[in-house]
Design a protein that fits this description.
Layout lengths: L4 H13 L6 E2 L6 E2 L11 H15 L3 H13 L32 H14 L6 H15 L19 H7 L7 H10 L4 H8 L6 E3 L4 H5 L13 H10 L9 E3 L11 H7 L6 H8 L2 H12 L1 H16 L23
Antiparallel strand pairs: 1-2, 3-4
Length: 336
């Protein structure tokens, strides 16, 4: 039976006017995340997060890198569920005590400040996991990097995993293959690995995280041959064979507080601070070509970084009725 022309026109018009779904399927999850999740329940949520992050950056230029790192270390352990924020309790052993986080993870007080402001605006609505995701995006933008729409709707875990934090987060002295394997376990690939490593364009690392490169990289008492020796000479002045473990060094000596592509330019000059950085250029042909591309084309890096951040933010979130919306990010609700 023929469909009247006027009905066809109306149907096509409705399709054309319907909003595009910006939903994002979450890895390992039955639920969807989408940027408009709080549009009705807490319309000022993103504005509040952005404002407090901006204020924190003005007071402490290290904070954006710290917030990016919190999101990364959260997502690689049990998914993006804010488990990294939980303190020790009777039933929880905090991830803050793990090797990757102890004496280095920071920004927890700022997350609580954001959470308190959101609880004042719209109680028990915005999750701590979503605060981490938004804070990472806003930290990138405020330091000169790309922006992206953050899929939202994560809920907060009721537990933590110290062993997961110790085993699943890539370490500074891991081999290239070990790092890539850890990314693949999370549903990420080599392109994600290289682009997300570019977040080391801002931030610091401690002497203890790269000392072996300066003095005994392969157990033979010799420095890492893939480290520029003039750069190594400068580093040794503040990173001795013993002592000074907590001394801080810029991950990107050229533009340490600006989100740009200098990180990749440094790798080509063999001036990556961490072994886990330099191996992207020295140990794999495909990653080497990506390093060269991003060093030459900042726009290509920015575009892929934004895509990979969304992919990372989709790792096994709790959605629907799973988990909870914590009222205070450092403890589960039943602890009140």
């Amino acid at each position: 039976m023929a469909v009247p022309l006027n009905i066809l026109i109306v149907a096509v018009s409705l399709i054309a006017l319907s909003p595009l779904c910006l939903c994002s399927k979450a890895y390992g999850s039955g639920g969807y995340l989408f940027p408009q999740f709080y549009d009705h329940s807490c319309p000022k949520a993103q504005e509040i997060v952005q404002s407090i992050v901006a204020k924190a950056f003005a007071q402490d230029p290290r904070m954006p890198a710290s917030l990016l790192r919190l999101h990364f270390h959260d997502c690689f352990v049990k998914g993006c569920d804010a488990s990294i924020l939980l303190d020790n309790s009777g039933t929880i052993i905090s991830e803050k005590r793990s090797n990757p986080n102890r004496n280095s993870a920071r920004g927890f007080e700022l997350i609580e400040e954001i959470k308190h402001a959101l609880e004042q605006e719209c109680p028990e609505t915005v999750s701590c996991a979503d605060i981490l995701a938004l804070g990472a995006r806003d930290s990138t933008v405020i330091t000169g990097g790309p922006s992206w729409e953050v899929p939202l709707g994560r809920r907060d875990a009721r537990g933590a995993s110290l062993s997961g934090s110790n085993n699943d987060i890539p370490a500074p002295n891991n081999t290239f293959q070990t790092i890539l394997t850890k990314f693949k376990r999370q549903g990420l690939n080599l392109v994600d690995l290289v682009s997300l490593s570019g977040s080391h364009t801002i931030g610091n690392s401690r002497c203890t995280s790269f000392r072996q490169r300066l003095y005994n990289q392969s157990g033979n008492g010799k420095p890492d041959e893939s480290l520029n020796q003039n750069y190594a000479y400068v580093l040794r002045k503040q990173c001795p064979r013993s002592g000074g473990d907590q001394n801080l060094f810029f991950l990107d000596l050229a533009t340490p507080f600006k989100f740009d592509n200098h990180y990749f330019k440094n790798l080509i000059m063999y001036k990556g601070l961490l072994s886990s950085d330099e191996v992207l250029f020295t140990k794999n042909k495909e990653s080497r070509e990506l390093v060269k591309l991003y060093a030459e084309n900042q726009e290509a890096f920015f575009e892929q970084f934004a895509k990979s951040m969304v992919r990372m933010g989709n790792i096994s979130p709790l959605t629907g009725a799973r988990g909870e919306i914590r009222r205070i990010c450092r403890r589960v609700n039943h602890a009140y």
